[in-house]
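User: Modeling request: complex.
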Amino acid sequence: MEKDKLTALGGIKLFEGLPPAQLKSLAEISQLKGCKYGEILFEAGQPGTHFFAVVSGKVRVYRASLSGKEQILSVFQAGESFAEVPVFEGKTYPASAQALEDSVLLSIPRRGLVELLRREPELALSVMALLSSRLRAFVGQIAQLSLKEVPERLAGYLLLLRAAQGRDELTLDLPKGQIASYLGTIPETLSRAIKKLSEQGLIEVAGSRVSVLDPEGLAALAESDR
Amino acid sequence: MEKDKLTALGGIKLFEGLPPAQLKSLAEISQLKGCKYGEILFEAGQPGTHFFAVVSGKVRVYRASLSGKEQILSVFQAGESFAEVPVFEGKTYPASAQALEDSVLLSIPRRGLVELLRREPELALSVMALLSSRLRAFVGQIAQLSLKEVPERLAGYLLLLRAAQGRDELTLDLPKGQIASYLGTIPETLSRAIKKLSEQGLIEVAGSRVSVLDPEGLAALAESDR
DNA sequence: GCAGGACCTTGACTTTAGTCATGGAATCCA
DNA sequence: TGGATTCCATGACTAAAGTCAAGGTCCTGC
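Assistant: Request completed. Predicted assembly structure:
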């Protein structure tokens, strides 16, 4: 069992390059935790006791409004970690987290991680780099939400996917409803945005498969604003 | 002159509690820099060479769209620091920065700061806490932009100001146009939102002075969503 | 004291996106 | 296999916020 945890920890990008002794001490304090599709890991406002890493599966981090609309902040997959904020602030989780698939997670109590960071300046620098990249992503998300309309945001999202998948035939990584929530809109509006891009000949859509027909056109749209 | 820098560094919250020797080495590599109202310090996309701290004055960090609309991410005042992201990522600034008043800044080259962080785990932890609090703020901002309407966002902003100023008679800390940009809207829409809150008897406005008449009502509005 | 300018407000209008309701397609699994 | 569920698309409508244009207020500096 300790063995499993060690292997799992080894697969987490953030802990790459950590000396084996430290990995082992991390393994001692962390827990492997299975969770099912739809399971809520924590909710915005709860005291933030643990830091998480995804061993397998998929987790979304989001904020919900009282009326039920949700804004996805990020989706995390195998090798990624999340819920750093309360580790260093010691307060509450700023957002909620829910499994989008049956998943396996590592949960690490914040105290232990802080101890480790005190002893491992290189890990600390990695953590700062990770936090910084999150900040960069959020800056982009804020700018998109505030300065761009839905079809433009969709174009940007598709270009990101294309870069990640390395080809023009994309497979959507999330159900469309979740993509809508990530883009800060609702499924109906996303549906119409997809139709619009199709009609303009920029993409072709069949279910969760999307072909990018005109990458430059998409890029022009994504850059543009009203 | 070195003396000035030391005093200035001593006033920066992030560096509070740093051993004098380290402060001194920071002073050696950092530069004092005056800048005038409206001066642009850096623009989104430029290589991020420096980290900044505000000695006096006021700086806004924002993203602009091609068409001229702007979204303010944060406004920094004396004692605060900004532009951490490229320090740890070594890439470009994710947003632009502009002086909102004649200001004095400290600029610190990223290399020197990284060196210092390697030697000072406690400073590293402070930086992680700072980055985390930024993330928390951005999560809130994303949620507001996506899940709430302008009058609700305004209500939230006024409540924050009220908490900061500790009384019900507020002085707006920014021109209304800048507040609009912070709230993700335009001056006309902000004007109407202010009028709406006034008509509902929640606030009373005269120029840049705002009286909060009904804090609970404001809070109810800020929490609510459509 | 008044001309110019920055900033703010208001009104009329347009555009975008959200709401509500309906129906279709795919999937899961008794 | 067929019934239920979930997810998605579409249409008709409403509401929110942006655009454009005009005018007001306040401050500054001759």
